[in-house]
What does this fold into?
Amino acid sequence: MQQNSDGSLSVNPTTVTDSNGHKVSQVSVDTKTILDALDHLPSSSDKDQVVLQIPSDGWDDFELDFDAELFQKLLYKNSKIVLTIQSMFAAFHFPASTVQKSLEQFGVPLNGAHVKLRMSKKSLVNDELLHQLGVSSVTTPIDYKMNIIEKSGSNHTMNQFDSYTKHLLNVPSSFSETTFSHLVGVMIDPATGKYYPVPAIFTKDSKGILQAQIYGRNNAVYAVVQNSKTPRR
It folds into this structure.
């Protein structure tokens, strides 16, 4: 990883093809590099955010591996710090305090443990399921999962946080004139075949790009969908 002039960190993943034919990009995030980057943020940048820039293309699944102790160390420096994973089409915001509280709920030693964040473009949410639900996705549905892996190898899924995390999705320009009332942020559960509306704010950035800020508390698939009907349970 290297720090850019805007204070963000560019990651260079190793990409492999798994047994399912998916391209999986993997990055082991060095704690010292993250902490050093926080100390050297330029004056013009947001001091409450460390941004990891990941490639937008070339992967179906992206895995980031963090030392579990990273989040506590970040909090020692700044209680408001947010770790942001950013690409050209999406950004995921994880407050260190929210992740740390989730880790503490397991009551396991953090020394030697790792937190793995896996983001998948090829989730169980496919076009057929969306069609059955009567909606069409206007953004790439991203399935994200976060796990803590103990030093012993025991694996725990971090299913739900105690507060909302933010997912920023860029909406294609072809939908820039679409009435906001026809767009909705959703959390999709492939296991039940249902989708649920979640808090979402639609805005345009300085370049006129329509963005959706979606807020959720679960490991789930988040997307912006177009639907003339009211979302239902």
Notes: The chain has a mean pLDDT of 82. The first strand starts at residue 2 and ends at 3. Residues 31-39 form the longest helix (9 residues).
